[in-house]
Design goal:
With about 400 residues, the chain is mainly α. Helix content is about 65%, strand content about 5%. The radius of gyration is 29 Å and the shape is elongated.
């Protein structure tokens, strides 16, 4: 036990003496979290700019434009005369949607010719394009229903009969877990935890590789009473403490600062997150023990952790990825962690539903920890053979 305490004190002393480590362990993660949270602080996209080509300029066409303007998602900021001008707006990213209403639109409706309204979607940005696409479909459906209702009423059909004809099946649409489709609620926590994941792996890499680069392996072993296991345990405990601090700041402060609700109890989420931290730091230690130089270890860290968020299944379902990718991503702790985290954070399910992910994280963490210990034993033997005890 004394050897573990010596390593803990030694690691803390090293951190406090290094301004770079203080910045990297305390200041940088918090600044990064604040920066990422600020990107999506508006929470939802609204009043997206659209352009209108109204070649009819009738009462009906003006009502259609009015409906689009009344939508919280869109605002008609540009009036253009042809599709070439619209294309120019799209190229400049000054418009997300183009609404084209042809000549004789109102006359054709009265003649029951079913004229068409063309909607051009600037889908270069998937999110804004998808929003205006859904909103325009809903608006035009309402307008269609209104026109049909007016025609049926003129033909002597009562309003209730008209309603039954136009809506034979009533649809009750209720969104669960994120009813407002708030982008900040959905994406920001995942990005925050992805940053912490990279940070924890980097810690695991640096805490061992630095000893070899600075040639302080012998003094490290002396402090631990020549026990490499005590070295790994001591270092792990120090950085789990830092991870605990960051999770407390994240869940208690940052979530409130950016108005993101945490539906589950903080204590259980913290414990679950510490399992994730253990697996991530162990993974970093394993990389450091496997790769000979600190530079190679850092390259391995970036290569595996940088795309982890995209491969985690948080934004794109894992079951829609290639089978080989589905199997490969689970070696990275972020994927199982985020899968369980969404259940706690958004769905407020019982903690028992995350036990599977807890076991997975602990098994991975222990496996990486053991592998790090085995490879470190070989590295230390080679180091001592080269530089002496």
């Amino acid at each position: 036990m004394k050897g573990i305490i010596n390593i803990i004190l030694r690691e803390l002393k090293f951190i406090t003496k290094s301004k770079l480590y203080i910045f990297a362990l305390i200041v940088f993660p918090i600044l990064d979290i604040v920066f990422l949270g600020g990107i999506y602080i508006s929470q939802t996209l609204n009043k997206l700019p659209i352009a209108v080509i109204d070649n009819d300029n009738s009462k009906v066409s003006k009502n259609i434009v009015r409906y689009f303007n009344a939508s919280p998602d869109m605002r008609a900021t540009n009036r253009v005369s042809n599709v070439y001008e619209l294309q120019d707006l799209f190229n400049k990213q000054d418009s997300v949607l183009g609404l084209y209403i042809p000549k004789n639109f109102q006359k054709d409706i009265k003649k029951q010719k079913s004229p068409s309204v063309t909607v051009f979607i600037n889908a270069s940005n998937y999110i804004s394009g998808n929003i205006v696409d859904s909103a325009s479909i809903a608006i035009l459906s309402i307008i269609n229903a209104g026109i049909k209702s007016s025609m049926l009423t003129k033909n002597g059909i009562y309003k209730q009969q008209t309603k039954d004809l136009l809506q034979p099946v009533r649809v009750d649409n209720e969104k669960l877990f994120n009813p407002s489709l708030n982008y900040n609620f959905y994406l920001t926590p995942g990005l925050w935890l992805s940053v912490i994941h990279q940070f924890l792996i980097l810690i695991g890499v640096l805490t061992l590789s630095t000893e070899f680069d600075l040639k302080t392996v012998s003094s490290m072993l002396e402090e631990s009473k020549r026990s490499l296991l005590k070295v790994l345990i001591g270092k792990m405990l120090v950085y789990l403490l830092f991870a605990f601090t960051h999770f407390e700041i994240l869940y208690l402060l940052m979530f409130k600062l950016f108005n993101i609700p945490m539906l589950h109890s903080n204590e259980e989420v913290i414990l679950y997150s510490l399992c994730f931290a253990f697996a991530s730091i162990s993974f970093g230690m394993f990389l450091s023990s496997l790769l000979k130089t600190r530079l190679n270890a850092l390259k391995g860290c970036l290569l595996l952790s940088a795309p982890a968020f995209l491969l985690s299944g948080y934004t794109w379902p894992l079951d829609q990825m290639p089978c080989l990718v589905q199997k490969a991503v689970h070696i990275i702790p972020l994927a199982p962690f985020l899968e369980g985290f969404k259940k706690l954070y958004q769905q407020n399910i019982s903690i028992e539903y995350t036990y599977y992910f807890v076991k997975k994280l602990l098994v991975f963490g222990l496996a990486y920890f053991v592998l790090a210990y085995i490879f470190m034993c070989f590295r230390v033997k080679k180091y001592e053979a080269k530089y002496g005890n």
